[in-house]
Fold:
Amino acid sequence: MQTATAIIAAGGSGLRMGTSTPKQFSELLGVPILIHTIRAFRQVPAIGAIIVVVPAEYRESTSALLARYQLADYCKVISGGRLRQDSVRIGLTQVADDCPLVAVHDGARPLITPKDIQRCLDAATTHGAAIMAVPVKDTLKTVAEGTTIRHTVERQGLWQAQTPQVFRTDLLKEAFVRADQDGFVGTDEASLLEHGGWPVMVAEGSDTNLKITRPDDLRMAEALLMKKPTLPEMRIGHGFDAHRLVAGGPLILGGLEITHELGLLGHSDADVLTHALCDAILGACGEGDIGRHFPDSDPLYKGISSIKLLAQVIALAATKQLHLHNADITVVAERPKLAPHFPAMQTILAEICQVDPASINLKASTTEKMGYTGREEGISAHAVVLLTLKN
Ligand code: MG
Structure:
């Protein structure tokens, strides 16, 4: 359920990074910091919209950047103001009143995890306002005159505020109105609610939720990211199909016509191997089965090449950013010998699936004359696939 809009505050100038562009555009393991940040929010199903607030002069280039990383559809890029408070106020004008929650996050905190975002959303759903924070661990000193300690600050009850900071939309809007009336400027959104007397809860976060401010932070963030497993999001799918063997019809397997005295019977070309593969891919996409997409009651699919159906299935997966990583397919047939035909089938299937032929593994098995495949009444096929999410 989509219950929140995220405002990513990326208006900083990044002077402390010593770079010519703002820090949120610096690269972390080859990907801009802002992209890492947005990807984390994109993975939270409750986040329905993302508003990215950048300096006016970076609005166009940010839109182009998001398009390059296929995130443009989920984000609205707007120009911010002079102060962070101004930028978030402008962002807030884009949030619909009926959106229950607003999550404000620093564009330069790219290591936030979807799990922590969700925890903060949950706390705000319960309490109206919640921010991610960590208890202070170090002893804190007040230092005067450059390097002389004046006194030690009592650490008990001290927390470091981070983002996300999540609020009921009506509360945050009201807090902004109150702050503007009073001329109050805060360094985060929670302080505006505190100023107005509204309670704000803390949700304990992680020290790894770094704010990239100096070059050292960037190096630390890279080290932390490299420790994370970098496996892409994966989906597994399984498919099974069987078709009857009859005299006279063509035998088409993996898009290849094979000379044999028996052929497969079906509404389409009855390519049982390709059907199992289609079903496995649809399964991995959470899209039901081949019968749902290409009903055998539809004359459109009468005699159709199953390779065309496979192309449509691959295109459907691509709309979900899912791409075939590899497939392992077993065909169960007493006869004919299939292994000699596998290289040609692999070439056909790999081209449609846009993968290397080595990613399509084909195997043949018999049932040693047992059952319907053993009696040559039919041929069946099993397929297992792995799809990966590529943004
Ligand atoms: Mg079939």
